[in-house]
């Protein structure tokens, strides 16, 4: 039950970050590392005066899946996943997103539906890719960014770059953090070298190192 003083927050994440699937994987020990009950810890906002809802994956027919992938390739963001959440967008006070793939899609959906819901868009890779974008993509993204109420950046360099590209948009730097409730004991290795294997698919990963 929502208190009248609570902020109704809708967390719009990527299709593969469905909160129910996340919780099942966490309970079954399939998630690597120490993880929150909700993706990226967004559920923590519940203890901070917010009522939180998450985007849902839902079932898709093969035709819808194909159309979704085609539009995602063409536009550079997942408009189909966002469009399927449109009713929930209208019921929220604010929509939080995790990367530009989500906030660009949400901005497009809000413009199409004319919902007045506030939108917080987090930028992760957009500025790094900006010089490689086509003229049409740059025009479209600039138009959609105008619908974002606040843009947040994990990188101060990306934030500085955005000042010249998205003039007049409220943008903030938000330092990246990790959970600190479960500190892990320090392990001391004696003798021989320490072999480190670093795996992952993050495009910012320093592969040469």
Number of distinct beta strands: 6
Structural class label: alpha/beta
What order do the helices and strands follow?
EHEHHHEHEHHEHE
Note poorly predicted spans: none
* Separate helix tally: 8
Number of domains: 1
Q: Architecture, according to CATH?
A: 3-Layer(aba) Sandwich
Question: On the 0-100 scale, what is the average pLDDT?
Answer: 90
Tell me what portion of residues adopts beta-strand conformation. 5-15%
Strand order of the largest sheet: 2-1-3-4-5-6
CATH class categorisation: Alpha Beta
> Rounded to an integer, what's the Rg over CA atoms?
19 Å
Give the N-to-C terminal Cα separation: 49 Å
Helix % is: 25-40%
Q: How would you describe this structure to a colleague?
A:
This protein has a single domain, classed as Rossmann fold. 35% of the residues lie in helices and 13% in strands. The chain has helices at 19-27, 62-75, 79-83, 86-91, 100-113, 126-129, 135-145, 156-165, and strands at residues 7-12, 50-54, 94-97, 118-123, 150-153, 171-173. A six-stranded parallel sheet has the order 2-1-3-4-5-6. The mean pLDDT is 90.
Keywords:
209 residues, alpha/beta, Rossmann fold
List the helices and strands and how they pair.
Layout: E1 7-12, H1 19-27, E2 50-54, H2 62-75, H3 79-83, H4 86-91, E3 94-97, H5 100-113, E4 118-123, H6 126-129, H7 135-145, E5 150-153, H8 156-165, E6 171-173
């Amino acid at each position: 039950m929502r208190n009248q003083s609570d902020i109704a927050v809708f967390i719009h994440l990527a299709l593969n970050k469905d909160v129910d699937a996340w919780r099942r994987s966490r309970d079954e020990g399939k998630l690597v590392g120490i993880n929150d009950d909700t993706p990226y810890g967004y559920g923590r906002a519940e203890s901070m005066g917010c009522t939180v809802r998450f985007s849902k994956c839902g079932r898709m027919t093969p035709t819808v899946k194909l159309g979704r992938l085609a539009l995602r390739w063409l536009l550079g963001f997942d408009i189909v996943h966002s469009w399927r959440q449109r009713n929930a967008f209208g019921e929220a006070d604010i929509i939080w997103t995790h990367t530009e793939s989500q906030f660009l899609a949400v901005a497009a959906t809000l413009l199409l539906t004319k919902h007045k819901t506030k939108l917080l868009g987090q930028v992760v890779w957009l500025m790094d890719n900006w010089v490689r974008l086509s003229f049409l993509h740059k025009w479209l993204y600039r138009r959609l960014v105008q619908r974002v109420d606040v843009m947040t950046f994990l990188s101060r360099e990306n934030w500085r770059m955005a000042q010249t590209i998205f003039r007049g948009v409220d943008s903030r730097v938000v330092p990246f953090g990790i959970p600190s409730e479960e500190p892990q004991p320090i392990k001391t290795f004696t003798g021989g070298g320490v072999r480190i294997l670093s795996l992952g698919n993050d495009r910012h990963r320093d592969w040469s190192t």
